[in-house]
Amino acid sequence: MKRFGTVWILAALVAVTALPAAGFTLIQYLTKAPVLKISVDTFNNSSSQHATEVEPSIYSNGDTIVALAQEGRFYDGGASDITYATSTDGGTKWKYGSLPGITNVQNPSNPWDRVSDPAITYDAKHGLWLAATLPLSDTTGQMPLVSSSSDGLHWNNPVEIGANNGDFMDKEWIVCDDTSTSPYYGNCYVEWDDNSQGDLLMMTTSSDGGRTWSAGQTISGSQGYGLGGQPVVQTNGNVVVPYLPESGTINAFSSSNGGKSWGNIVEVGAQNDHQPAGGIRELPLPSARVDAAGNVYVVWADCSFRSNCSENDIVLSTSSDGIHWSAVSRVPIDPLGSSVDHFIPGIAIAPGTGGSTAHIGIAYYYYPNTNCSTSNCKLTLGYISSTNGGSTWGSPVQLGAPAELSWLATTDQGVMVGDYIASVFTSQGVHVAAAAAKKPGKEYDEYMITNKSVLNEDSRIQFSSRGERPLPGAHSDHPLHVYPPGD
Question: In angstroms, rounded to a whole number, what is the distance separating the alpha carbons of residues 273 and 284?
Answer without folding.
Answer: 7
